Amino acid sequence: MTETSLIGKSMIRTDSVAKATGQAIYTADLKLPRMLVGKVLRSPYPHARILNIDTTRAERLKGVKAVITGKDGYDIKWGVFPYTQDHAMIPTDKVRYIGEEVAAVAAVDEETAMEALSLIEVEYEELPAVFTVEEAMKDGAPLIHDQYKNNINVHVHIEVGEVEKAFSEADIVLEDRFEAAGEMYGMMEPYAVVAYYTPEGYLDIYMPNAGPHVRAKALSNLLKMPLNKIRVRHINSGGAFGGRSEISPGDFVTSLLTIKSGRPVKLVYTREETSIATRQVHDIIAHIKTGAKKDGTIIAKEFKVYYNGGAYSSTGPIATSIPFYVYEETYRLPNLRYDGYRVLTNRPIRGMYRCHGRAFLAGNAMHMDKIAEEIGMDPTDIRIKNGIRAGEVTATGSKIISCGLEDTIKAAAKKSGWKKKRGKLPPYHGIGMGCLAIMCGFPMGFRSGSSAYVRVNEDGAATVISGVVDNGQGNESVVVQIAAHALGIPVSYVNLICSDTEATTHDPGAYSQAAVFVSGNAVRLAAEDARDKILTAASQYMKVDKEALTIEEGVIHLKDEPETAIKVSKAVRYAMSKGNHIQGYGTYIPKISFDREWVKNPYGQMAGTFSYGTSIAEVEVDPETGIIKLLRMVVAHDCGNPINPMAVEGQLEGSVGMGGVATILEEHVWDGGLQLNSDFLEYKLPLSVDMPEIDPILIQSMDPEGPYGAKEGGLTISMSAYKAIANAVYDATGVWMRFFPYTPDRVLKALEEKKAKS
Amino acid sequence: MTETSLIGKSMIRTDSVAKATGQAIYTADLKLPRMLVGKVLRSPYPHARILNIDTTRAERLKGVKAVITGKDGYDIKWGVFPYTQDHAMIPTDKVRYIGEEVAAVAAVDEETAMEALSLIEVEYEELPAVFTVEEAMKDGAPLIHDQYKNNINVHVHIEVGEVEKAFSEADIVLEDRFEAAGEMYGMMEPYAVVAYYTPEGYLDIYMPNAGPHVRAKALSNLLKMPLNKIRVRHINSGGAFGGRSEISPGDFVTSLLTIKSGRPVKLVYTREETSIATRQVHDIIAHIKTGAKKDGTIIAKEFKVYYNGGAYSSTGPIATSIPFYVYEETYRLPNLRYDGYRVLTNRPIRGMYRCHGRAFLAGNAMHMDKIAEEIGMDPTDIRIKNGIRAGEVTATGSKIISCGLEDTIKAAAKKSGWKKKRGKLPPYHGIGMGCLAIMCGFPMGFRSGSSAYVRVNEDGAATVISGVVDNGQGNESVVVQIAAHALGIPVSYVNLICSDTEATTHDPGAYSQAAVFVSGNAVRLAAEDARDKILTAASQYMKVDKEALTIEEGVIHLKDEPETAIKVSKAVRYAMSKGNHIQGYGTYIPKISFDREWVKNPYGQMAGTFSYGTSIAEVEVDPETGIIKLLRMVVAHDCGNPINPMAVEGQLEGSVGMGGVATILEEHVWDGGLQLNSDFLEYKLPLSVDMPEIDPILIQSMDPEGPYGAKEGGLTISMSAYKAIANAVYDATGVWMRFFPYTPDRVLKALEEKKAKS
């Protein structure tokens, strides 16, 4: 990278000013002419047959413009894969959780809409309900969907090597059960949808979402409309964290309301609705058996993991396998058997999560430390020993093309003072570590790749059109930076048009850590194409060889003779005067196995590349109160060559909050199917005072596939932070705490049990 | 064209349903969060020095968020060419017409905004004013701008051949003065602007306009902002007719108000403001001298034409030459001298117009008929004799690549029963004709060409991204039809994204009759590129030669064996699974002389091609009341190969209303600088009861450059209809009426004068 390179320079994010000054506009702020207010009638029962819905009184109320029930839909069920299509969005047969959509109204104002809801009469027949995976899997348990035996919705089975033989050869065998309660995504922004079905038959729809093109595809299926008649837009969003990955019943409800009324409709969820009727986080039970040699080599793994999926399939096939994959992409695992079960219960629907798999991943991390302790090996060494390396192939067949795992372990250990602290801290003080890989650009069918387009105007400034979407991660800023770098112009010269399925083209969205890696690569290719066309024009105008030219800060000059120069604007004007518009095009599709499926064929190249991260946590446990204080987190991240280090550091800080502090605080509390803490008064979201000192470390490397060597930023920390905390709490207390979160009551109970045993 | 061809099929326009049902959303309907109301303080004087503006009281009023004057601008003046940059948008030195912008406010509601206006104190020093070109050009007349001597703003001088010699050789020499009053554009939609300057420094602006990219360029200059920071959008608009071609002070005012307040601002003009403070139509005085041989050959022309330009340059350089060019593109004119003067007066600013040049063009038509009468030749024959033909080059150097002029004359004559009627109708009944050419795609600098982009989704439907803009002409529908035809898919499968300068790319807009010819060609090329990629994928999937395949109605099949077929969607999915997105790109720039300038070098190739039209009018004049009844208009139009004949016919009907009926009704009435009839109660816009029977005739031909042979649709009729009426009124009354419009008082006066003479 030259001095004028924009890659690796920390930049203020393009969305900072508006957000910091409160001027950013969110979906709930939108106003459209003649817009109606939408409201949803929700189920008061966790499981009940719908015998009848009478909407006549609601329809007669003055000011009500549409009343819909499930019968207004198109008899299509949603699911990520054909074999999990079970979600009608508004059911007609029975309700399956408290808060499920039953009917909805659109009216001229909120008061009328609320009154209309009260006039809808629903006759239910209550049915027995199940809430935990144990209850749900029992023979004879009430079935939530007839087609899923024992309520098992997805079963992922993966087997590699000779598992029994490996266990028989192991010097150490550990077997434990780990459990984690579900959490809230806790987006600051309540869910909101604004939709307008135009007289021409186009659906224009806004909602906070992690992938407009993916959302459009789902709506296209459910509404039986072609993709190009559904324009999904995303403006600012107050976080996603995996919870806005998938179509929401609210999208479908609002679409039906605008289709029926012919007027724009805005649906804004309350906080309670947001935490119940959008996706929730799976609670997980993980049985882990580990076999290791006494030199620390892990030779056998057997997993049985149960994911409480709530009432519908949702992203089940993916959610049931992600924790396994990120683990097997981190360590060399020659013999393994994974059985992941997603089990349906009468609780709200669970989906993907930025910190998904806590019980499973932290459980594995605890086993790693247990083995290290047993054989007297340092936790850093056992991780380096078993850690995967560039050039290796994972158990399920993914080639690792770049890997900074060892570097992250070493850097984090050094920065944290690991050697001086581990096992040597005062009582109730502890330090622990955790490592993780994450895939960048995983299989998403026709949405695995991204296309981008770059136009350079006659004033030398450029517009990038990309399907990239930003939920607060800084994705928009990063692709702007990539384009500016490729074009050789300042960042401020680039405008980005994105998050609009009709103005932009194919893109995976902010799934699969694709924003920088996939969308960023497409933007890079498009900008490089435009740059090439600019240089062609300049070489003709300047009558010099194209290869002799370069572009820096908006000026094209001879590489050897910087004073022979013209502005980019001059070259563009020259090209335009000759009938050429300066436009570049780029498509990038990650090198993955396209025939790979999440459940049916779980082997093959899973991702374009993988990033790596290590978290080290230092904690203090108060034996009187059970309160864990997270003192410091050192987080080292191999994100390849970071485009905008400040943005990556921001992601690492957020990851510490969500993956780390949440481990101490966050838990959904239930009474059967009723969520008891659905708002921010009752639910303990980390506040700034709860945050530890954070030392982010960027392990700079060059990924051969990433745009200018870049990979994903942040997720390896959000999913390794809790591992580090689990091990730190053991270091502090000598107790392996196998149930998350580590709330004071659980800590006290664990300390008492330990005392009782000793 | 095959049976499944979509070209030449009449299609319901894509905007019809929304407009017909009143659901179409216009700029004034838009709502943005925190939006303010803008209001403009206007000059009460036609000419006055601004001594002082005190805005302090207005600023202090509660609810007022911004008050601006000309001093809030950037000291840049607007003009289409460097030598006509004289319009500061909000003046700081003096006001130059009644209604000119002096200051503006943005407030929380209209009442507050109006009150704030009343609190702004402006001290003026009145100056002597001039209102007619004669007054303005007099030596010693008050100068409206110091730099324009005798208030002559633009002088176009064109000379070809040997004019004096030719006149000396002429058998017949005619010399007359023709005059036409100004008119109102009469858009149903009052002018409106909604703008928001975001915290990131982007200006998002909506207004009805004829070319978003051209508007962005002007705003970019005036606001000193790069093009890509100005996003001009256009939603539905209630007509343009040439009057929304150019930046309006309202755009600038609203931009300054949102920049200053940091909040979105909506400015909606009253009807009176719309008719005074947006562009007006030039009133024109044309001195025409014609020399012809007795065989009817026109051998000499000398023109002196004075255009009352109002207070600023506006599109002066173009407006002063367009009437001349369209005339010299219609007839063979070996010797000519044209002097066009645009003269500034203290009346509102005049701009381009769909029926521009009435006095000049009708004057020439009357000379043509006078000569024919004198030599006993039929008006059709003299027009065919002098009419230009394909392959010829016009006086100023434009090669004519296709020309249906003669066909339009013959077709219109036949349909109208010309031979049986001309000179043979009862007293006070008459029939007359007029012919005209119009250029398609004329020089607009960097905006002469268009680029388009086509994406085809995996469901076989497509999205077209084009800068095309539709002001009610049907342009959007036409490019959709072109794309569908090129792709071989139904029209309903195509969505169009347009009228948005950041989501779309370079485009001239609906100027220069470019929509079908230039933008349509770019869309055609992009769609053909996408089609080629679809066929490549299909040939790989089907394992057949690409050349053997064709696409019809969304199905790809072997040309010789239609049952061997796959759907387009299948080919797209196959391509995507192989890592290829189906996307096509196209750029079209008309073959014009790029070094040609409107005033400085008026010779060279003026346009990509030219369309032709003939109007024949049949009238009845009531000698008692002076009322002319337009009975029937036969209008024949060579629009090349019409893409959507119904849309072209719609344009022809509109052209008859605006170019024809208006000739009888429409006139702005003035008291000095004060417009007396600025609303639809006082100003006589044609109503449906005023419309004649209309016989539209499409002369189908194939232009070698137009998309699928198409050219412009409509303008040759709007600018020839009044020619036909002038000649028909002569045929009915024996009076050459040299002043437009033909209002009853003028008709009566002319009849009386004739009576007095006889």
How many distinct helices of chain A? 21
The SS-based structural class of chain A is alpha+beta
Kindly report the spatial arrangement of strands forming the biggest sheet of chain A. 3-5-1-12-9-10-11
Q: Major beta sheet of chain A, specifics?
A: 7 strands, mixed
- The poorly predicted ranges of chain A are none
Largest interface here, residues on each chain? A-B, 55 and 55 residues
What is the approximate shape of chain A? globular
Averaged pLDDT of chain A: 96
Q: Strand portion of chain A, in percent? A: 25-35%
Oligomer: homodimer
Cα separation of the termini of chain A = 60 Å
Helicity range of chain A: 25-40%
What's the count of strands of chain A? 31
What Rg of chain A, in angstroms, do the CA atoms define?
27 Å
What's the layout of helices and strands?
The structure is a homodimer of 758-residue chains.
Chain A: H1 16-20, E1 36-42, E2 48-54, H2 56-60, E3 64-69, E4 94-95, E5 101-107, H3 110-119, E6 121-126, H4 133-137, E7 152-160, H5 163-169, E8 172-180, E9 192-197, E10 203-206, H6 212-223, E11 230-233, H7 249-261, E12 265-268, H8 271-277, E13 280-281, E14 283-292, E15 298-310, H9 316-319, H10 322-328, E16 336-344, E17 350-351, H11 358-375, H12 379-386, H13 405-416, H14 418-421, E18 429-440, E19 450-456, E20 462-466, H15 475-487, E21 494-497, H16 514-542, E22 549-552, E23 555-558, E24 561-567, H17 568-577, E25 583-588, E26 609-621, E27 628-638, H18 645-665, E28 670-671, E29 674-675, E30 693-698, H19 715-718, H20 721-733, E31 739-740, H21 744-757
Parallel strand pairs in A: 1-12, 8-31, 10-11, 13-17, 15-16, 20-21, 27-30
Antiparallel strand pairs in A: 1-5, 2-4, 2-6, 3-5, 7-16, 8-14, 9-10, 9-12, 14-15, 18-26, 19-20, 19-25, 22-23, 23-24, 26-27, 28-29
Helix pairs in contact in A: 11-20, 15-16, 16-17, 18-20
